[in-house]
Design a protein that fits this description.
With about 20 residues, the protein is mainly alpha-helical. It has one helix and no strands.
């Protein structure tokens, strides 16, 4: 599961950063 989430981690990080920036 962790390995599968790895590729999505980048997208998740960007989303989180966007929220923090907002």
């Amino acid at each position: 599961m962790v390995l599968s989430s790895l590729p999505n981690y980048c997208d998740y990080t960007v989303l989180l950063l966007s929220f923090f920036l907002l």
